[in-house]
Structures are given as structure tokens and as C-alpha cells.
């Protein structure tokens, strides 16, 4: 007879002293872990609930401006520094870690229309209603020195926007036309126009640095190549585009914030169909900015809220609002992709977390592992109805909520009419136009 | 250690030839004589023994979806070895690694950890979804290989009992085993002589550390049976029908003559649950925190012990319920009835999920193994049957016993114990998931009284038997899972660990309405509602947005694009499509006929000729 009994030595399973860690032998045999899927599902449900419990995105409000904040700019080298221009011509520089204003400049008479930093971070440019472009030093004046711009360019027309080249000493302004300036000269290198209308914003492409995009109030978005004397092509939409933002990771993708409550993500190579129509706002979208990862963007709207959209989804992932926040005019996603800043009508700049339930500060390795695990679980079970319902639930202010209802009814009525028309006409005579193509009027080359 | 060429005697001749060309292999500490390192490092002999193995360091192998590609060893390694010999891995000292790359993993072991069933066909998905599924599949394959490799780290080996040539293990007495094993194991065999309080029911806690038993005459006791430390001993002054530990050893449910009572480990009565009256059998579902009670009145009641609410009270409509067991794989309750059927119950459904006709007489005992694939039943017709629970519910094997078994129990490694009168018989199978073979008895033992309760102790090679003469703990080598998982149920856990586990377990309490026959159904694609949604969408929009546009011939060069030719081209494409459809439907019809002709897994019967 040969016999062996299972006989464990407790010394191998129990810690030696109280100072040791407990021993936890693992065996991944599936029969020892029954109900794997239901338990994971319950964990995912719990993780989703906790995410909503800990969703406290609002971090700080920076107050000090004496008029509505009209434009914001990030510092290219320092995460803590932010520049803002107000409707009374005042420019303020803020320190985000201390949450205070470190410098105030009375830059212009009337609005500060645009502000941008130089790529090296030593100086910044502002344009205002007083038809001037001014270059300022990033550091404040030394003791006893006057606060003066480095250069001032007096123009003939009002400038409505400015953006700096990402690598060279060149910047672009817009107004009646798009002007490309050398920093050393007082006259533009070249001016480009296409039609006669006021151009509201101009943006340099961060990857293909010679490309520019601009949007004008005659409802079109125009693309330029700086190396050519004439514009590349333009797309005409149903309504006016307020501003555009280039994707920092994909050179040919940009997103346009439109007056018709929607945002349109375009592929530069095929402008006739937008890659995605993003709809959730209930009023005109005023500003848009990409996260440095290029996966998501944030939009500011006249409906007193900001929303975060994934680049490839038509519905927003997140909506931020407070009781005191009025029409949001400008928004920026910080360079570490963790925070969002927005400037609004009621003179405040607000700082938000990009992930509402994220824990700030240093995480221990166990905390990190737990959040990673929870994230994966949420991803795995995201389409289950209970999980989806909890993850999607947001409290909205009454004004937005009722407007969403109203617009849903309007949209439903329009759709019904379309379906009826399709039903009662000769097959093939009424074309089916997709939602994406519906808003594009024409592409001109 | 053997060298590789010698070990390859049983390998195919092709390989022999290949190896013969090479020089003799050397040990890794021997100096290298020639700069061309041909024929060096053929790996340890261990690799030779395993015919089928996965080699994950070769990325090509792990990512190929074709499984047969992985398992075919003789062709693949030839190339690989040549490549490795060209560029041997070298350390700073110049010595070669004798075991290059990660450890090999046998395919059969990796197969155990697979979660995705690739044979299941999904509806045609969009390319994005499809690519995501493909990524998930490759990930899952890698994970299963990693999990299989972690089995090398398991510390304990299972026990066994083998007779010397010709010796029948069933003839071996408990006394012989006790004599042959070490002192620690011998101490696990004991007999509690409690003749006074009548037949005993018993229950081990989930960690296998604690034992509770209750006698017909009201004697209830709980003890740490490993250290033999008594936790409590009381007399409830009422008949005890069944006894069961709740999720931890601190709580004890006792089915008494009238009502269900819950005691703590000091023997203090915590609750008297009057909604559960005349309870005959108890089962605890640990992941759902449900206590299932079967009563004389014919009700199956589920009590949620975490909140103290009755989740469901189901009327089985089959008279007195006295046979109950749970399926540990999917938490479905199996009830045995006097008409020979076994019914399967879930608290979410008012009617049984399935009814299986098992015996000609009444059902006396039911047991389900830990993988949830086999069910053993015994009935008044003196038969013991093993059923396949994976869909078909067909009997796999049957045996007529002289006396018929009154109690059945499965061990963690698939051993089946049956109590027949005062005898306990144990049958063993080939492994964990294989059914026990009823031809050959593995062990047998005669007790001092009639058997009244049976349970294998989790994680110990011990079978607890409650009988009219007391409680016996008998040794059954090879019954238990040798390696426990410290985070699930740890027999050596401290008080703090238990408390932490309790909080975690309560947080992930599975809702009662998720109990169904297939617990993995929650992670599968819900095809039915997907199609329903699609239909609704088409109805709402008035057209199918995903429909393929009808073929429209492109206009050709001038002169070629006459209306007649356009129509002809159009017709050609339409005809082709039509032919495809007809072909498909014909094939489907053929398959249906074949299926109808041969029902799977059933012997041809003489009555088949009358089937039309």
C-alpha cells in the first residue's frame, strides 16, 4: 500500500512574527473562484457608484477681473501659469498652485480680443479693440520700472484673434483678413482673404506647423498654408463657426465650435463629411480646446456649462456647471491633461478636474492598482443597463434640463416629418441625408 | 540529468535524424570548443516528457488563433532551435542559460483557464467591434498562459492511495491508513462516541477549519476540529433536523423541529426565524448570502442573511421536501422528489428551471460536484446514477447498489461518497472534472451506526460522517484540493484577515436574481436584445441605415453603356445573389435533416423505426 495524505506545515502558511506581512498563497484555478462574472459585475457596479460619489470636479475659482473674461492662454513651459484677458482691456497672469494673481496689466482700451504666448515662454502677445498688437515680457517689470510692452504694432483695422507659430518667430492675426507677421517687422509678411467678412479666430496647426485654420462670420472655415500666398480650401456650414481647435496628436483633424449648438470634427482631407457631429449643448458653442492626448476635447457654451467630448463619440462624457457660472466664453485644457480652465462672463476663471472623480496627489501603489482594476471593470461592463444608467446620470440645472426636453421634442417632430415624407413619396425620390452631411453646405477649393 | 539526444528515443524518427547530425550536447558549465555553437543547449529533459506545450516567448505561436498550430510540437521547434543556436543567450560570465525563455506551459493546463468560447458564433459585427473582440481574445489567451504557468508555483501535491500490485484499495482499512501516515494526518481521524443524542447531521465551514454537528435529540456543538478546541456545546431541547454554518464560522443556522434558529459561535441564540417553519434541509449559498431552506410544507425559502429578508418563497408543489443540495458552480438548488424527479430552482423564477426524471422510485439523495458538471442521485430503486449537467441532463453511468445510498457527497477533487446503511463507499474518477467510475470502489468503511450525514472537509483529505453512534472523521487520501487561494477561503487566516474578507465579501454580494443555469451568461453578447433594438430602430427611422445599397452598374466608356447592357449587368449580379441565397438555404435544410436523423448521445433503440 502506498499512501500520501495532504498534510500542510502551518509554518508555511502563517507569518512568523507580528511584524511580518500575512502570507497569502494564491491558486488561480477557476473552480476555486466560482461566480467570476457575477462577482466582477457587482464590483463594476460598486466601482461605478463610487465614481459618482467621488465626482467632485470643481477645484477653485480665480477672481479679480473687473469685467468678463474674454480669452485665456496657457504658458508653454510652466504648468502653474495662466494668462487671461478681460473685456475691459486688462490682462492678468495667474499662479494656479497658489491660486492668486501675480501680475496685472492694463493692456488695451476696450476688449482684449486675443492672447497667445510665444513657444519659448518668454513673452506673450495681445490684440485688442484699439487696433493694436502688443508684445509683453512674461516676467514683470523690475522695481521702479514702468509696465510697458516690448513692441506695439498699430494696425489699420480691428484684430479679433491672434495665434503664434509653434516653432518659428511668426504669428498670425485675424480681423478683416488673416495676416502673417514676422516678430521683427511692423508690417505683415502676407495677408490672405477669401471673400469679405470678419474672421473671428485663427489657429496654427501644432504638428504641420505651416497650416492655419480660420473661421469667419459668413459661416465658413478656411484653411491656409503659410507657404502659399492664397488659401487652401474652405467649407461652408449651416451656421457660423465661432472657433476651431486642431488635434495636437493627429495633424489633419480639427474640431469646430458652431453656433447651431453642435461641434464638428473634420478631417482636413475630406471636408465634405465631418468625422463626427458632437451634440449635447443647448446653446451656441463658444470655445473648444483639445486635451494634449488628442483623445478628448472640452467645449464652452453660451448655455452656462462646459462639456467634455471624446473625439470619436457624438455625445459628451461629462458636463460641468455651477450656479454662479454664467455664459462661458473661453476654455483651456492644461498641458498635463489633468485640469480644465474656463473663463466666463461673470469675471471668474474656474479650475476643474478633467476626470471628475480622480483622486489628486500621490497615490500609493495599492491605490493605483485598485483604481486601475476598477477602471477596467467599468470598461468591461459599461454596456450593462444598470451600470450605464448610473455612469450616465448627471444632475443638470433646470434651464438646461428643460431646454434639452424642448429640443428633443423639436427634433422628434422634424424626424417624424421626414419619415412621413419618405413614406408617402415615390421610392428614391426623397434622398436620405445622414446627420453628418446635413449641416455641410459646400466645400470650395 | 540526461542529455537531450539520448532522451529523444521515443521521438519521431525524423527528429532523430536531425539530432544525429549535431554534436553531442554539453552541460552549461563546460567550455565551448567551437565558435559555431551548433547543437548546444537543447534544453532540459523535462521538456521531452511534455508532448504538447505552449512556448509564449515565441510571439508568433501565442498569437496564432489556430490552436493546432501550437500543439504540434515536432515540426515547429526544429526551426526555432536552429535560430536559437545561431545567437545563443549569453550572460556576463560567458555561461549559457540552460533554460532559455519562460517556462513551457502544457496546452491542456492552459485550456483550463480559457474563458472565451470561440466556437460560439456572434452576429456579424462592425469592424471596430470585431477588432476589439480580437484584441480581447489574444489578451485572454496570454492571460491563460500566464495563469497556467503560475501553477508551477503551487506548493502542495494532492494525496493518493495506491494498492501494491493486485491489491484492492477498497480492502484497506482506516486503521491501516492511520498507521501508515504521519502523526499530523493520523490525528485527523477520530470518532466521537455520542450514542445518547441520536443520529447526527454535520457541516464543515467553508475554510474547512470548523465542524458543527447537531443530533436528533437536540445536541448541537461546534468545534475547531483541527486543534479539537470546542467552541460551543448546547442542547436546544428540540429535534435538530439540519445544521449549517453561514458565511463564516461565527454564525450557525440550525433547523429545529418548529422553526429555524441562528446561533453564534458561543451558542447564544441570535435569531429565531418563524417564517421558516418545519425546515428539513438547509443550504447556504456563500456568494449570494442566501440561506435556502426546504420545509415539510413543500416550500423552498430563500433567506438573505446579510439583511434578514426573505428573498423568495417558492412552492415546489411536490409534497414534503427532504432532499436538497446546491450546485456550487451556479448556485442553483436541486430538490429531490418522491416521484423520482430532481427539480432545479433559482429564486428569480417561480417555476423550476429544469426537471429531470432520475429514478423509478423516489429520490433519496442528490449531490453535485464542485465544477457543476456532474450530479449524482440515488433513489428508492437502489440505483446510483451520475448525470451530465451541461445542457443534456443525460445519465453517464448507473450502478445498482445492494442497499441503495441514503446520502451522497462529492469532494473537491471529484470523489463520490455514498452512505448505505452503516457503510460508506467512496468512488474515485480520473481527475477533477471527470465523473467518478462506479465499477471500482476506492475506499469503504463500516461505522458503528446508520449514516445520517456526509460531507467532505474542504482542503483536507477527510470525510466527516454523522451517524446514529456519533460523528466519525475518516481519512480519504486524495479527496481535497491541496492548494487553497488565500483570498477566497484560507484555513490559516487570522481574525483580522477574516474581518477584512467579510467586508469584501459583503461588498460584492451577488444579487439573488442573477442565479441562473449559466453564470457566465452575464458576460456574453446579448444577441436577442441587440436584434430587437435594430428592428425598433429601423421602424423608427423608416429605413435600414445599415442596409447594403442595391447594385447600380457604373456607366462605362462611350458606346458601351447602352440601357440593354446596363440591365443585363444588373440582372447578372441579382441572379448571382439569388443563387447564393438558394444554396445557403439548401445547405441549412440538409444540416437540419442530418441533425434530426441522429440525436446525439443516445443509443439507437428498437422503437426508432416507428419515428417519422
Automatic annotation (TrEMBL), chain A:
Record GO terms (molecular function): ubiquitin-like ligase-substrate adaptor activity
Stated family: Belongs to the WD repeat DCAF13/WDSOF1 family.
Protein name: DDB1- and CUL4-associated factor 13
Compartment annotation: Nucleus, Nucleolus
GO cellular component: Cul4-RING E3 ubiquitin ligase complex; small-subunit processome
Occurrences of domain Sof1-like protein (ranges): 354-440
WD repeats: 62-104, 278-319, 321-362
Function: Part of the small subunit (SSU) processome, first precursor of the small eukaryotic ribosomal subunit. During the assembly of the SSU processome in the nucleolus, many ribosome biogenesis factors, an RNA chaperone and ribosomal proteins associate with the nascent pre-rRNA and work in concert to generate RNA folding, modifications, rearrangements and cleavage as well as targeted degradation of pre-ribosomal RNA by the RNA exosome. Participates in the 18S rRNA processing in growing oocytes, being essential for oocyte nonsurrounded nucleolus (NSN) to surrounded nucleolus (SN) transition.
Organismal lineage: Eukaryota, Metazoa, Chordata, Craniata, Vertebrata
Record keywords, A-Z: Nucleus, Repeat, Ribonucleoprotein, Ribosome biogenesis, rRNA processing, Ubl conjugation pathway, WD repeat
Main location: nucleus
Record carries keyword Lipid metabolism: no
UniProtKB/TrEMBL annotation, chain B:
Main location: nucleus
Location within or outside the cell: Nucleus, Nucleolus
Keyword list, A-Z: Nucleus, Phosphoprotein, Repeat, WD repeat
Region described as Disordered: spans on this chain: 1-106, 542-601
Gene3D superfamilies: YVTN repeat-like/Quinoprotein amine dehydrogenase
Bias (Basic residues): 69-83
A biological process from GO: maturation of SSU-rRNA from tricistronic rRNA transcript (SSU-rRNA, 5.8S rRNA, LSU-rRNA)
Listed name of the protein: WD repeat-containing protein 46
Amino acid at each position: 500500500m502506498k499512501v500520501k495524505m495532504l498534510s500542510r506545515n502551518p509554518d508555511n502558511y502563517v507569518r512568523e512574527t507580528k511584524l511580518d506581512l500575512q502570507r497569502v498563497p494564491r491558486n488561480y484555478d477557476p473552480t476555486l473562484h466560482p461566480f467570476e462574472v457575477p462577482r466582477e459585475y457587482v464590483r463594476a457596479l460598486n466601482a461605478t457608484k463610487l465614481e459618482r460619489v467621488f465626482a467632485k470636479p470643481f477645484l477653485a475659482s480665480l477672481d479679480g477681473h473687473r469685467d468678463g473674461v474674454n480669452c485665456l492662454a496657457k504658458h508653454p513651459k510652466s504648468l502653474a501659469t495662466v494668462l487671461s484677458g478681460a473685456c475691459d482691456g486688462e490682462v492678468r497672469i495667474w499662479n494656479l498652485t497658489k491660486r492668486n494673481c501675480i501680475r496685472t496689466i492694463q493692456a488695451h482700451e476696450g476688449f482684449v480680443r486675443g492672447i497667445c504666448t510665444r513657444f519659448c515662454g518668454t513673452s506673450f502677445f495681445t490684440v485688442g479693440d484699439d487696433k493694436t498688437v502688443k508684445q509683453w515680457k512674461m516676467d514683470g517689470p523690475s522695481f521702479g520700472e514702468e509696465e510697458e510692452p516690448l513692441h506695439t504694432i498699430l494696425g489699420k483695422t480691428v484684430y479679433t484673434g491672434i495665434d503664434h507659430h509653434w516653432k518659428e518667430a511668426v504669428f498670425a492675426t485675424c480681423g478683416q483678413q488673416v495676416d502673417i507677421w514676422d516678430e521683427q517687422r511692423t508690417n505683415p509678411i502676407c495677408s490672405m482673404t477669401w471673400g469679405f467678412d470678419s474672421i473671428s479666430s485663427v489657429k496654427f496647426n501644432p504638428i504641420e506647423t505651416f497650416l492655419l485654420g480660420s473661421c469667419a462670420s459668413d459661416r465658413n472655415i478656411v484653411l491656409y498654408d503659410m507657404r502659399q500666398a492664397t488659401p487652401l480650401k474652405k467649407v461652408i456650414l449651416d451656421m457660423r463657426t465661432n472657433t476651431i481647435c486642431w488635434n495636437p496628436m493627429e495633424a489633419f483633424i480639427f474640431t469646430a465650435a458652431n453656433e447651431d449648438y453642435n461641434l464638428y470634427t473634420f478631417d482636413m482631407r475630406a471636408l465634405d463629411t465631418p468625422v463626427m457631429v458632437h451634440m449635447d449643448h443647448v446653446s451656441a458653442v463658444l470655445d473648444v480646446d483639445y486635451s494634449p492626448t488628442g483623445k478628448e476635447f472640452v467645449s464652452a457654451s453660451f448655455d452656462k456649462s462646459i462639456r467634455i467630448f471624446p473625439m470619436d463619440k457624438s455625445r459628451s462624457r461629462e458636463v460641468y456647471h455651477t450656479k454662479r457660472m454664467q455664459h462661458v466664453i473661453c476654455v483651456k485644457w492644461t498641458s498635463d491633461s489633468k485640469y480644465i480652465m474656463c473663463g466666463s462672463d461673470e469675471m471668474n476663471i474656474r479650475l476643474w478636474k478633467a476626470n471628475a472623480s480622480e483622486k489628486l496627489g500621490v497615490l500609493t501603489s495599492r491605490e493605483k492598482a485598485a483604481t486601475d482594476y476598477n477602471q477596467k471593470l467599468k470598461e468591461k461592463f459599461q454596456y450593462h443597463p444598470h451600470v450605464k444608467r448610473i455612469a450616465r446620470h448627471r444632475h443638470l440645472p433646470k434651464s438646461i434640463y428643460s431646454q434639452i426636453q424642448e429640443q428633443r421634442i423639436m427634433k422628434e417632430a422634424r424626424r417624424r416629418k421626414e419619415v412621413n415624407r419618405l413614406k408617402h413619396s415615390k421610392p428614391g425620390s426623397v434622398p436620405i441625408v445622414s446627420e453628418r452631411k446635413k449641416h455641410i453646405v459646400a466645400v470650395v477649393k | 540529468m540526461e542529455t537531450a539526444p539520448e532522451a529523444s528515443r521515443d521521438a519521431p524518427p525524423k527528429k532523430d535524424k536531425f539530432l544525429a547530425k549535431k554534436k553531442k550536447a554539453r552541460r552549461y558549465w563546460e567550455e565551448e570548443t567551437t565558435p559555431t555553437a551548433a547543437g548546444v543547449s537543447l534544453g532540459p529533459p523535462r521538456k521531452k516528457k511534455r508532448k504538447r506545450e505552449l512556448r509564449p516567448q515565441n510571439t508568433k505561436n501565442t498569437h496564432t488563433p489556430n490552436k493546432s498550430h501550437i500543439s504540434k510540437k515536432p515540426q515547429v521547434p526544429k526551426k526555432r532551435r536552429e535560430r536559437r543556436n545561431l545567437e545563443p543567450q549569453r550572460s556576463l560570465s560567458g555561461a549559457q542559460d540552460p533554460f532559455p525563455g519562460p517556462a513551457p506551459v502544457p496546452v491542456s493546463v492552459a485550456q483550463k483557464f480559457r474563458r472565451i468560447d470561440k466556437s460560439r458564433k456572434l452576429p456579424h459585427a462592425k469592424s471596430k467591434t470585431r477588432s476589439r473582440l480580437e484584441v480581447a481574445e489574444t489578451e485572454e489567451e496570454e492571460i491563460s498562459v500566464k495563469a497556467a504557468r503560475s501553477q508551477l508555483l503551487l506548493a502542495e501535491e494532492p494525496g493518493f492511495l495506491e494498492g501494491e500490485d493486485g491489491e484492492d484499495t477498497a480492502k484497506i482499512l482506516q486503521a491501516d491508513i492511520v498507521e501508515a501516515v504521519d502523526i499530523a494526518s493520523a490525528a485527523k481521524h477520530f470518532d466521537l462516541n455520542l450514542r445518547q443524542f441520536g443520529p447526527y447531521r454535520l457541516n464543515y465551514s467553508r475554510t474547512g477549519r470548523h465542524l458543527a454537528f447537531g443530533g436528533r435529540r437536540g445536541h448541537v456543538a461546534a468545534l475547531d476540529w483541527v486543534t479539537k478546541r470546542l467552541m460551543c456545546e448546547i442542547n436546544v431541547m428540540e429535534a435538530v433536523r439540519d445544521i449549517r454554518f453561514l458565511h463564516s464560522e461565527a454564525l450557525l443556522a440550525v433547523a429545529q423541529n418548529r422553526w429555524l434558529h441562528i446561533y453564534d459561535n458561543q451558542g447564544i441564540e441570535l435569531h429565531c426565524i418563524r417564517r421558516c417553519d418545519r425546515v428539513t434541509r438547509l443550504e447556504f449559498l456563500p456568494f449570494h448570502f442566501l440561506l435556502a431552506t426546504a420545509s415539510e410544507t413543500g416550500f423552498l425559502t430563500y433567506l438573505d442573511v446579510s439583511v434578514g429578508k426573505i428573498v423568495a418563497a417558492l412552492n415546489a408543489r411536490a409534497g414534503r421536501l427532504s432532499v436538497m443540495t446546491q450546485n456550487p458552480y451556479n448556485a442553483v438548488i436541486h430538490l429531490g422528489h418522491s416521484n423520482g424527479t430532481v427539480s432545479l430552482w433559482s429564486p428569480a423564477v417561480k417555476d423550476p428551471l429544469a426537471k429531470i426524471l432520475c429514478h423509478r422510485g423516489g429520490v433519496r439523495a442528490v449531490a453535485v460536484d464542485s465544477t457543476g458538471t456532474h450530479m449524482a442521485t440515488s433513489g428508492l430503486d437502489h440505483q446510483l446514477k451520475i448525470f451530465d449537467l451541461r445542457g443534456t441532463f443525460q445519465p453517464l453511468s448507473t450502478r445498482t447498489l445492494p442497499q441503495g445510498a441514503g446520502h451522497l457527497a462529492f469532494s473537491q477533487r471529484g470523489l463520490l461518497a455514498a452512505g448505505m446503511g452503516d457503510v460508506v463507499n467512496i468512488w474515485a474518477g480520473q481527475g477533477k472534472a471527470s465523473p467518478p467510475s462506479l465499477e471500482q470502489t476506492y475506499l469503504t468503511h463500516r461505522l458503528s451506526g446508520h449514516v445520517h450525514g456526509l460531507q467532505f472537509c474542504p482542503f483536507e483529505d477527510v470525510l466527516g460522517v454523522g451517524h446514529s453512534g456519533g460523528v466519525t472523521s475518516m481519512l480519504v487520501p486524495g479527496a481535497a484540493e491541496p492548494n487553497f487561494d488565500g483570498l477566497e477561503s484560507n484555513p490559516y487566516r487570522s481574525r483580522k484577515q477574516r474581518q477584512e474578507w467579510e467586508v469584501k465579501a459583503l461588498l460584492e454580494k451577488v444579487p439573488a436574481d442573477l442565479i441562473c443555469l449559466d453564470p457566465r451568461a452575464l458576460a456574453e453578447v446579448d444577441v436577442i436584445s441587440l436584434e430587437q433594438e435594430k428592428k425598433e430602430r429601423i421602424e423608427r427611422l423608416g429605413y435600414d441605415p445599415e442596409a447594403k445599397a442595391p447594385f447600380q452598374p457604373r456607366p462605362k466608356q462611350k458606346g458601351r453603356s447602352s440601357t440593354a447592357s446596363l440591365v443585363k449587368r444588373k440582372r447578372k449580379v441579382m441572379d448571382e445573389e439569388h443563387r447564393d441565397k438558394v444554396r445557403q438555404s439548401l445547405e441549412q435544410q440538409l444540416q437540419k435533416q442530418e441533425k434530426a436523423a441522429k440525436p446525439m448521445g443516445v443509443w439507437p433503440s428498437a422503437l426508432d423505426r416507428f419515428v417519422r
